[in-house]
Amino acid sequence: MPELPDKSSAFMDWYLAVVEAANLTDKRYDVKGMNIWTPYGFLARRNLDDVLIRGIERTGSVPVEFPALIPQTEFQKEKDHIKGFDAQVYWVTRGGDSTLDVPLVLRPTSETAMYPTFARWVRSHRDLPLNVYQIVNTFRYETKTTRPFLRVREIHFFEEHTCQVDEEAASGRVRSNLDAFAEMARSLALPYVAVRRPDWDKFPGAHFSIALDIPVGGARTLQIGSIHHYRENFSKPFGIYYEAADGSQRLVHQTTFGLSERLLGAVVAVHGDQKGVVFPPSLAPYQVVVIPIVSAKASADPRPAATQLVESLRSHGLRVHLDDGDERPGAKYYHWELLGAPLRLEVGAREAEHGTATSVDRLGTKRTLGPGDLVSAVREALRAYELALYDRARVAFRASFTKAERLEELAGSTTVRVVPWCGEETCGHRIETAIDGSLLGTPEGELPVDLGTPGPCIACGTTPSTRWGLAAQPL
Amino acid sequence: MPELPDKSSAFMDWYLAVVEAANLTDKRYDVKGMNIWTPYGFLARRNLDDVLIRGIERTGSVPVEFPALIPQTEFQKEKDHIKGFDAQVYWVTRGGDSTLDVPLVLRPTSETAMYPTFARWVRSHRDLPLNVYQIVNTFRYETKTTRPFLRVREIHFFEEHTCQVDEEAASGRVRSNLDAFAEMARSLALPYVAVRRPDWDKFPGAHFSIALDIPVGGARTLQIGSIHHYRENFSKPFGIYYEAADGSQRLVHQTTFGLSERLLGAVVAVHGDQKGVVFPPSLAPYQVVVIPIVSAKASADPRPAATQLVESLRSHGLRVHLDDGDERPGAKYYHWELLGAPLRLEVGAREAEHGTATSVDRLGTKRTLGPGDLVSAVREALRAYELALYDRARVAFRASFTKAERLEELAGSTTVRVVPWCGEETCGHRIETAIDGSLLGTPEGELPVDLGTPGPCIACGTTPSTRWGLAAQPL
């Protein structure tokens, strides 16, 4: 096995190599940018879906599933939306030998699939809020270079769509989505920043967009999700009215919340190291790998104790793999480090005899567990590992932002930059040119940087800035 | 609410009405035959998926997911397969403004998506068996009349694909699939018959096909799944070779196992009655509905006891809904019978005081649960209900087959007919004409009919029959 490229100096090479070495995906499918979910990658994705499902259903959202194909006539109803997606959709034009009367779009996102139906489902204020979500695959005819999990043509996608009585209620749903995402990100041990995108970079058709961004080394960032407030921009063309308590007919205000398999890519990118993937327990296909250390010299066979430990951990709901293959223990350690298993438990003759296990977590912390209640001890070790992983990520996160007050400082930035910005688009584009990237927008909430009050705009230098902007190089 | 059409005399009208009244799907989507999974229907589907996942993973199959789009070049590699599907696939011909160099098929099934990759994954006999499955949506440009869950254009589909060392091992996998399906069907309380399809009706490209059929009233049957033995029919064109222990290169033998949302339709069709859907506990979105019976005359408010009961049942893993709305209890009973909730628990002042609950299951059995351990009592009531449901279905199943020995008996059949058949295709088609339906094929294993030895073929009357055939009118 060749060594992985250096993460800090050759990030994307490292990322591609680690995804391939850990066999999270198979990129050799005959349509470029459409990858195969291998069993190991699929199990991680299933765990990710569970995190999202638990997180969103706790807020009262209910699952639905709308068709994958959208008639051209519906797709074109909101003019900014169609402008934003027209160049990157796949068209179904034939069924069997017949040309379809109305061409169908393979959904790039589901606004135009859902909203004609919302107009039927919503009749009265008693039907509101309508909070529904689906986890489906979406399709984009991507022309940029594709990267597993980060930019693909068939995307595993989470999308919540809601209808609210008015703009304020919709803003409340945006805040509730932000809270829900905070919980989800916490269970992935991912620190992130919520950023209100500038107007020229919002979602096609949105009133405003809040993106969820993470730094991934240098000035690079990765958008891992977004929350949009649509106001009446879609409800008007789709005619989603309700009868208010006073009998009047009103348009609903809408929001959406989008996440995707990029979260899996983010976990690899943020936590991974030179040995391979590092999974948080929430996502790991196997949270614990038990390895019996068989030795010809030892008096006792540790395998029965190892098997019993596996069964006992499984019966308590943990995902456990027993690696009783013929390879040397060292080869197994190497393999499971590459695959990112949070905890490995070594059970040799001595451990079997004393009812203990030697635990080594993916960050290298070694512990002797037991004798006594091994299940609780394993749970405790996983919890400690998760906290340590989150702490490590937060240290790196805090070091990823620095302030800049002059435009010339932005060239060659080795962190994401926090800059005073007057809010004007012209100045925004000058900042983007200076950092050779994007103005991500204005952070919502605290930043891990000591800021003070923003001085004059970094670009025009005259107008007093009312806000901070984040300048970065998005992947 | 109007009454449902009569199930026994107007089955399909009844089916369509009950699916709509229980709001399991919304058929008003703008592409005919592509329906919307409503929240209630989706929850039932999610539970169905869980039954399938548990059942197949217990046999050592692992999940994968292959892309939804298949290049025309791969799709056309197996000649019978392409002949069987060519007229009913959707074609993606454009991406953005460009015409695609190679048109893409929206998968109708995934043989041709997976097998080029299997040729890369399988190298040696140590890679075998390869047992993988996926649950995805498939697409068929269906020209027949569509029916929710039974015949749709976007199909929620379960497909296992396996590679085995030789024909015998593949036959072993077929048997193991049959065993796995027996478990799945049991947890849906669905009796069924496994039928080896005649050669003219097997899956395009298969060596042989075993279908899983259920009777649904009169001579009607519904195919709810299938298991296929491909021999080397696909491994040859796709080049799936392995190195055997003796160093020789051999073609794998393949099998597949397919199930779909039809199982949900089957549950509605088999268990449903004039009051609505009847869910087995495994599938029910809510296994238990708790209804507090509030009365102005009663001394005590039962709502705290009802809420506590709900929480206690939920904490033990049951899916529970608290219906504390303003409707009269009678309206709630009616509603939850229509939606098929297995158990409703009524908690009035008297029950609250005594720590009991009045339980009425969906088959009408009334019990007083408690005082004492209500969780165990509820579990016991659900178990008894499930058994009663299965018993009822088996009684109807047994009455759905009768023997016929003369061709003239087949016209106007009010059951599925078991007939002696010589095995010749010409005779098969004569039987099909006589019953105005299909010869389903030869049953595998026991039938719930006293058969004896088959006499001469019912069609040609001369050749001694070696087997029984099932003649029916498939939906």
Which features does this protein show?
5-stranded mixed beta barrel, Rossmann fold, 3 domains, homodimer, 13 helices, BirA Bifunctional Protein, domain 2, about 475 residues, 5-stranded mixed beta sheet, Translation Initiation Factor IF3, alpha+beta, 23 strands
Low-confidence stretches of chain A: none
Strand order of the largest sheet of chain A: 9-10-11-23-22
Q: How is the main sheet of chain A built?
A: 5 strands, mixed, barrel
Number of domains of chain A: 3
Broad CATH class of the largest domain in chain A: Alpha Beta
Number of helices of chain A: 13
Q: How many strands appear in the DSSP assignment of chain A?
A: 23
In terms of DSSP E residues, the strand content of chain A is: 25-35%
CATH T-level topology of the largest domain in chain A = BirA Bifunctional Protein, domain 2
The CATH H-level superfamily of the largest domain in chain A is: Bira Bifunctional Protein, Domain 2
Overall pLDDT score of chain A? 96
- Counting copies of identical and different chains, the oligomeric state is homodimer
Helix content of chain A: 25-40%
The CATH architecture classification of the largest domain in chain A is 2-Layer Sandwich
Outline of chain A: globular
Q: Give the helix/strand class of chain A.
A: alpha+beta
Supply Rg of chain A: 25 Å
How far the N terminus sits from the C terminus of chain A, by CA atoms, comes to 28 Å
